Amino acid sequence: MGDFIAALSHSLPDVGDGLLTTVEVTALGAVLALALSFALGLGTGSPWRTLRVPLRAVVEFFRGTSLFVQLFWLFYALPILGYQLTPLACAVVALGLNYGAYGSEVVRGALAAVPRGQWEAAVALNLTGWQRLRLVLLPQAWPQMIPPFTNLLIQLLKSTPLVSLITVGDITFRMQQIRAGTGDTRDAYLLLLVVYFVLAAAATSGMNAAERRAKARLGLGAAAARRPRATALERAASRGAA
Amino acid sequence: MWHWSNVTESLPVVLRGFRLTLLATVLGSLVAAVLGLALAIAGRAPTRWVRVPVRAAVAFVRSTPVMIQLFAAWVLLPRLSVTVIGVGVLGVHYAAYTSEVYRAGIDAVPRGQWEACTALSLPRHRVWRAVVLPQALRNVLPALGNYAISMFKETPFLSVIGVAEMVHQANEFGSEHFAYLETLTLTAAIFLVASYPTSVGLRTLEERLARSH
Amino acid sequence: MPGPTDSAPLGKPRLRVPGDGLDRITFEGVVKRYGDNTVLDHLDLGVRRGERVTLIGPSGSGKTTILRLLMTLERVSDGFIYLDGQPYSHMHGPHGTLVPADEAYLRQVRSRIGMVFQQFNLFPNMDVLANLTEAPVHVLGLDRDEAEQRARDLLDLVGLADKAHAHPTRLSGGQQQRVAIARALAMRPEVLLLDEVTSALDPELVAGVLDVLRDIAQSTDITMLCVTHEMAFARDISHRVMMFDAGRVIETGPPERVFNDPHHERTRAFLKAVL
C-alpha cells in the first residue's frame, strides 16, 4: 500500500491528466450523443417513411451491436479502409453513436407522451412543424427526458474505461501505468472504483438539479405553482402566430 | 481492402468464441436473475443492519464500471479460471440492476394485498411465495430479458481478462492475418443478428403482458 | 333485543346484551397518533360476545382506525386492547408488566379476528377456491380436502357456488366482495370486522352483499364491528350503534334510539346529512 501511495503522489499530474481526459471523453461523447438523440429521435418519430425507416435501421444497428465492437472497429478496421481517426476521435464517435441511438428512443418516447391535445392545439394555432416542436412539444417533453438521460449518462461514464484499450490516456490508462510500475494491483483498482463512483454521483446530482430547473420553468415544480405563468401554448401563440 | 477469404477463414474461429459468449451470457443472466431477487428481498429486510449495507453495496456496484470490476476480481482471485471470474462479475454487476427492477415490481404490489395477508395471518413465507412474488414478477420478466441482452453486448469486456469470447477471437485472428476489417465487421454482424430479433421478441412479449391485464 | 342503555356523551357505555355478558373486545385508553394528528383520543370501548356494533360518523373521526388496530394493521400509540379479557395489543412481560406484543404473540391470537376490506383485496394470482383455502391450509393447518370442503360450503352460503374456479378479476365488484367475506369466514373468526365493505361498489351490487351479511348476522353469533354508511343495514343487524367524532365516542345506543332520537347535537347533524 505504501509503495502505491508513493507512486501515486509522484505521478499526481499524470493522474490529474487522466481524470481530465475521462471527463473530456465523457463530456464530448455525451454532447454528440445528445445531438444524435434528438436528430435520430425526431427522425424515427417522423411521419415520413423515407426518413423514418432508414433512421430506424441506423438506431437498431447501433443498439444491436456492442459498443466494444464499434470502438474497436473504428480504431482497427476503419484505417484499413483508408480513414484514420485519432484514438480520442474514435472514442467520442463510438460513444456518441452508441448512446445517441439509445437516447433517440428516450426522445421519441417523451415526445409521444406529450398529450395529443397539445399537438392539436398547436395545429389549430397554425404553427409550423418546427414551431410546434420548438415552442410546444419539446419544452413539455424535455423534463421527462432527463431521468432516462441521466441513466444513459452514467452508463456512458461507466463505459469510458474502454477507451484505455485503444490508448486514450484516461484515468484507467494512467492507473494501469502506475500499477505496472509498482506491481501493486488491488489498491489501484479499488481507488479507480471509488473515483468512478464519485464521478457518477456528481453527474447524477447535476442532472437532478437540471431536472428540477426544467420542471420549474414548465410550472410543474412547487415553487412555480405559486406564480401564475403563461402556458407553453400561450407563449407559443403570441410568438408563433405573429 | 475487403477480402472475403478472411471472412470464411475467420468464421470458425469467431464462432468458437461465440459459443463462449453465449455461455457467459446465459450463466451470467441466471446469476443476475437469482442474486438480484435475493438482494431485492434483503433490501427490504426489517432490520437496518441488513438493509443498509445491502442497498449501499448495490448502489456501489451499479455505479462503477464493469471493466474495472473485472480487473479487480481478476487480481483478487488469481486461482479461479477467467471464465468463472467473468461470469461471476457480470452476474453480480447485473444483479445490482435487476435488484432495482425486482424492487420496483415488489413495490408495485398494492398495499391492500399485504393487508389482506395480515388479516388472514398468513406466515411470512406464504406472503412472499403465494401472494407478493407472483404478482411482482409478472412485470419483471421483460426487464430481465432486456438486461440479458445488454449483458450479451457487454461480454466483450471479458476479453480484457483473457476469456476467449467472440471479440477476443476476432482480434486474435485479425492481428495474425491483418484481417481486422473482416473479423470485426463479422463480429458486429453476429451481435446484430443475435440481439435484434431477441429485442423485437421481447418487445412483443412486453406488449402482450401489458395487454393481458 | 338489548336491555336498558345508559349512554353518556363521552366515556364508557354500559349495556347489556344477550349472551354471557363478557366483553369480547375491550379498548382501554387507546390513543392513536399519526405524527401530529391524534386520531383516537383515550378511547374506552367494550364490545360483548355476539354483539354487533356499527360505527358511524364523519370521515377522519377514527372509525376505520379502530378496525385497523384490531386487525393489527396499525399499532396503538398508547393504551391497551384486550380480547376476551386477555391482552391483545400487548403481551405479558417480565414481573407482570405489559409490553407491546411481538409478531410471534400476535400470530397466535390474530386468527380469531377476520376483516373484509373496502377494496376486497382478493389475491389476483389465485382462483376463488385458492383464495379461500390458502389461509386455512397454511395457518390453521387444515388438510387440503377439508379446506376445500369448507370453502365450497362458504361459497354456497354467499351464493357463488359455481364460481369456485373463476378468476377474481373476472367477477363483478359485488361478487368479489362476497368472495372476500367467504375468505374471512373460512378462518372461523370470533370477530368479523367490516370496513365500508359496500362503499366501493356500484349501487346495484350493494344489496347482494348486504343480504349475505344479514344472513350471517341472523344465522351465527359472530361478533361484528361494522363501519358503514348504509343506515338501513345498520338498523337491521346492529345491537348497538356508536357515533364517532374527532376520535371519541360521543353517543351510543340501539339503532332505533340513536337514529330516531339522537341525544347529541353532532349526531343529529350527521344523521340529518346522511339519512
Q: What features would you describe in this structure?
A:
The complex is a heterotrimer of chains A (242), B (213) and C (275). Chain A has 242 residues and is mostly helical. Chain A has one domain (2-241): MetI-like fold, CATH 1.10.3720.10. Chain A is built from eleven helices and no strands. Chain A has helices at 2-10, 12-44, 49-64, 67-77, 87-113, 116-124, 129-159, 171-182, 186-217, 222-225, 232-240. The model of chain A is unreliable at 222-227 (pLDDT under 50). Chain B has 213 residues and is mostly helical. Chain B is 81% helix and 0% strand. In chain B, helix 3 (66-76) crosses helix 4, helix 4 (82-107) crosses helix 6 and helix 8 (166-177) runs antiparallel to helix 9. The longest helix of chain B is centred in the first third of the chain and has 39 residues, at 4-42. The model of chain B has no long low-confidence stretch (mean pLDDT 91). With 275 residues, chain C is an alpha/beta fold. Helices cover 34% and strands 27% of the residues of chain C. In chain C, helix 3 packs across helix 4 (144-157), helix 3 (128-138) packs parallel to helix 5 (173-185) and helix 4 (144-157) packs across helix 5 (173-185). Chain A binds chain B through residues 60-61, 63-70, 72-73, 76-77, 80-82, 154, 157-162, 165, 172, 185-186, 189-190, 192-193, 196-197, 200-201, and chain B through 1, 60, 63-69, 71-72, 75-76, 153-157, 160, 167, 171, 174, 178, 180-181, 184-185, 187-188, 191-192, 195-196, 199.
Keywords summarizing the entry:
heterotrimer, A: 242 residues, mainly alpha, MetI-like fold, 11 helices, B: 213 residues, 9 helices, elongated
Short characterization:
Chain A has helices at residues 2-10, 12-44, 49-64, 67-77, 87-113, 116-124, 129-159, 171-182, 186-217, 222-225, 232-240.
**Per the principal axes of the C-alpha atoms, what is the gross shape of chain A?**
elongated
The 3D shape of chain B can be described as elongated
Q: According to CATH, what is the topology of chain A? A: MetI-like fold
Report the portion of residues of chain B in β strands. under 5%
Tell me the number of strands of chain A: 0
Q: Give the C-alpha Rg of chain A.
A: 22 Å
- Spell the H/E element sequence of chain B: HHHHHHHHH
Under CATH, the homologous superfamily of chain A reads: MetI-like
CATH class of chain A: Mainly Alpha
Unreliable stretches of chain A (pLDDT < 50, length at least 5) are: 222-227
The total strand number of chain B stands at: 0
- The CA-CA distance between the termini of chain B, in Å, is 55 Å
